[in-house]
Amino acid sequence: MVFAHNNYKNASTSKIADAGDISKSLLFHYFKNKKELYLYLWENIDRISNEIELKYYKETSDFFEAMTQKVLARCEFMRTAPDEYLFSLQALFAETPEIREATGKSYKEVYEDAAGKLLESVDLSAFRPGVEVGMLLEEIDSYLFHSLWQMLSTGKLDPDSLERDFLKRVGQWRIAYLK
Hints:
Elements: H1 2-5, H2 13-19, H3 24-30, H4 34-56, H5 63-80, H6 82-92, H7 97-121, H8 133-154, H9 159-177
Helix pairs in contact: 4-5, 4-7, 5-6, 5-9
InterPro entries: Homeodomain-like_sf, HTH_TetR, Tet_transcr_reg_TetR-rel_C_sf
Domain HTH tetR-type: 2-40
Keywords: DNA-binding
């Protein structure tokens, strides 16, 4: 996948057409421009992610178990579809403002929906008094963003390391935040 190994600006339509073994004219028959193709691919990454996440989904009221399921699914996505995952990182952290704005808006909508559903489905009474679970969720998301940014910066996905580190942190978070 050309977009996985090149940023948006450096992914020429010639390279894209060659990688797809099609002509540029056929590419532009289906997509009016490179941005439309890019955003189409970005939207379809969500479908792959959801399919993998369903394999890990087990109904639970345990906040940390639910978060662990999501991270294990993300790591599985990295293992089974590394180019697609790398592309999703390229899109999420895009250098081109118009791309970053579009993917960021889409990510924010999905994130807010998922966070709302998570907070509705978990047992908040398990937390110590005064713990703002929404803020904890933001803290965990910030940690994950940092980890993914590091992977993108090096160009190397490391799901095993993310998995190990996340599971250690979950243990610490349980001690710090649960009754």
